[in-house]
Amino acid sequence: MKYYPVHLDIKNRNCLVVGGGAVGTRKVNTLLECGARVIVVSPNPTPQLTKLASEGAIRLTRRAYRSADLDGAFLVIGATDSESLNQQISNDAALNHTLCNIADRPEICNFILPSIIQRGDLVITISTSGKSPALAKQLRQKLEIQFGKEYAEFLLLMGAIRKKLLSRAHAPEAHKTLFNQLIDSDLIQLMQAGKTEKINSLLYKILGEGYKIEDLL
């Protein structure tokens, strides 16, 4: 199987999770982080899901899954321990032309979920096309060490610099050279170490006046 890599915009879209155990709870948390409107169907939800429902963060239906639950859903995630139910969810999703992921069953999904590293707006995804989740996990753990929280702050800074350059009618074709210089410098290491003066000196050297980290972030 050759998968087509894509990042979905699920903000304010109805996303259904069938199954309210530990796996379903993890899926719900990820969907919420991405701004989805989450509906959970489960007769036995975890305490965390019950709490989220009481806070209005999700809509929780405490019963067994019905095919009609898919009505209006942009995507569905099946997170149950019943093979027959998972197959039914997959079949229903195919009839409804709904995106469908069944946990640990790539053969009955029309999309799979990669292993994820997130540092603010930086999202790194790792997929073994369903062949080895263990390898994906090991690679994720290695990359989590390599890409720390400083990358989130670095991206915020780069976004602020880009916005300011554009507001000054700076020639867009010149941006690439400037950003490459910033990326190739030791700016990330300086941010990690919190060396504000050296950061500002570097920004001045590359960008000129008016670019101080304390004013941009």
Give structural notes.
This protein has 217 residues and is α/β, with parallel strands linked by helices. It folds into 3 domains: 1-113, 3-Layer(aba) Sandwich (Rossmann fold); 115-147, 2-Layer Sandwich (Double Stranded RNA Binding Domain), CATH 3.30.160; 150-216. The protein is 47% helix and 15% strand. It has 9 helices and 7 strands, in the order E-H-E-H-E-E-H-E-E-E-H-H-H-H-H-H. It starts with 13 loop residues before the first strand and ends with a helix. 24% of the residues are buried. The model has no long low-confidence stretch (mean pLDDT 94).
Q: How do the helices and strands line up, and which of them pair or pack?
A:
Blueprint: E1 14-18, H1 22-33, E2 37-41, H2 47-54, E3 58-61, E4 75-78, H3 83-96, E5 99-102, E6 115-119, E7 122-126, H4 133-146, H5 150-167, H6 172-184, H7 187-193, H8 196-207, H9 213-216
Parallel strand pairs: 1-2, 1-4, 2-3, 4-5
Antiparallel strand pairs: 6-7
